[in-house]
Specification:
The complex is a heterodimer of chains A (127) and B (240). Chain A has helices at residues 3-17, 19-27, 51-72, 81-87, 95-102, 117-126. Chain A is an all-alpha fold and 127 residues long. The longest helix of chain A is centred in the middle third of the chain and has 22 residues, at 51-72. Chain B has 240 residues and is mainly α. Helix content of chain B is 70%, strand content 0%. Chain B is built from eleven helices and no strands. Chain B has helices at residues 2-30, 46-59, 61-66, 68-88, 98-131, 133-138, 141-162, 168-179, 190-205, 213-216, 221-224. Classes of the chains: A mainly alpha (127), B mainly alpha (240). The A-B interface holds A 1, 3, 5-6, 9-10, 13-14, 17-18, 20-21, 23-24, 27, 29-37, 52, 55-57, 98, 100-105, 107 and B 17-18, 21-22, 25-26, 29-30, 90-96, 100-101, 104-105, 108, 165-169, 171-173, 176-177, 179-182, 184, 189, 215.
Chain lengths: 127, 240
């Protein structure tokens, strides 16, 4: 391979290797902390467990509650999805912000209804 | 302190990784081919060669011809690695592309199996290296080291996904901070720190390890030469 071709090959490899940086530069988020998400948190500030635990492990609690309810017929009110809704009223302002950000799709809403702020507003206006 | 330390080491590792691979690519690309040594039966035109290299790099044809068991292990390992790496893309772009979300929906249900498919062939390759006399005889430290390193990375990843979970938002914020050059604090979950440290070691070691085969396969003359020595005279580059 001659030097000119070799340079092109190196350039192609450089583009592939640096793709995370290139993509972000193209999207225009370089040097800015465009990554912070602003959550709408309830005023009480107290959940069923502490904040750190909930952030990392809320899915375990929900899954356990699901298994207990569906298989054993035991309803734990504290850990039900409905109990979440008493404080975290809108899905799009709470669940979806983090879930969309990290690319995790919760299975909850395939069956359960957890209204978004828009739906809630429409319902209020309907009444 | 932890964040500063890791931010610097991350950039250090990335620079070694990228520059190291580019140096290797340059070296491979300018190395002259004095002879036609395409491994026959070889394609007789350029399109055939491109197809051959793509097939060899994706399906490991030549390995299939030599050893079916290792081929199966290799396929499982590389396929699992591809899926795992693809699902890590979600930590490097914001917002996450539709396609990655789709893959993610699929992965969430079978993720632990993919993890197992990644770890099992590594275990197999390790046992084979220890067990088979002639392979143990030709093995050096680097051969064991890379298997152990990859195994630990896979294991810490699975642990992080299913058992000791970090705060994912903090993890993504940290990663996005790194790649947009606006450093964010490092998550303190011990498993995440382990996983991240091992990845940095892998990145810095990659260009000097046997893993460079992923780059080298595209430059091996027995694969990428056209078998047209009768139609077109091949002149030794330094005899021209």
């Amino acid at each position: 391979m001659n030097k000119f071709m070799a340079k092109i090959v190196v350039l192609i490899f450089a583009l592939v290797l640096l793709s995370p940086f290139v993509v972000n530069a193209v999207r225009g988020v370089m040097g800015s902390s465009a990554t912070a998400i602003d959550l709408v948190l309830p005023e009480s500030g107290e959940c069923v467990k502490d904040k750190e635990y909930m952030r990392a492990n809320h899915m375990d609690i929900l899954k356990e509650a699901r298994v207990k309810t569906v298989r054993d017929g035991v309803r734990i009110k504290d850990y039900s999805l409905k109990n979440c809704q008493t404080c975290h009223t809108n899905r799009d302002e709470f669940c979806d912000r983090c879930h969309n950000y990290v690319g995790v799709k919760p299975e909850c809403f395939e069956c359960h209804h957890f209204p978004t702020s828009k739906e809630r507003k429409e319902r209020c206006e309907g009444n | 302190m932890l964040s500063t330390c890791y931010t610097f080491s991350a950039y250090f590792a990335i620079v070694i990784f990228v520059l190291g691979i580019l140096c290797k690519v340059w070296k491979y690309a300018i190395t002259p081919n004095p002879l036609k040594i395409s491994l026959t039966p070889a394609p007789t035109n350029a399109a055939g060669v491109i197809l051959r290299v793509i097939l060899d790099a994706s399906l490991f044809n030549s390995l299939f011809k030599s050893n079916k068991f290792i081929w199966l292990g290799g396929c499982a390992l590389h396929l699992a690695l591809l899926i795992v790496v693809a699902s890590h893309i979600r930590f490097f772009v914001s917002p996450v592309p539709e396609l990655i979300m789709l893959l993610q929906t699929f992965l969430q249900s079978i993720g632990i199996f993919i993890g197992a498919i990644f770890l099992a062939p590594i275990g197999y390759l390790f046992i084979r290296r220890v067990w088979v006399d002639r392979i143990r005889f030709v093995s050096i430290f680097a051969d064991y080291f890379i298997l152990i390193l990859l195994f630990c990375i896979g294991l810490s990843g699975i642990t992080m996904k299913y058992f000791i979970r970090p705060d994912l938002v903090a993890v993504k914020t940290f990663i996005m901070g790194l790649i947009s050059f606006s450093p964010e604090p490092m998550p303190t979950n011990p498993i995440f720190i382990t996983h991240f440290t091992l990845i940095l070691i892998l990145l810095a070691y990659f260009p000097f390890s046997k893993l460079i085969h992923s780059v080298g396969i595209f430059f091996s003359p027995t694969r990428n030469q056209i078998d047209n020595s009768r139609e077109k005279r091949h002149v030794n580059p330094w005899d021209r």
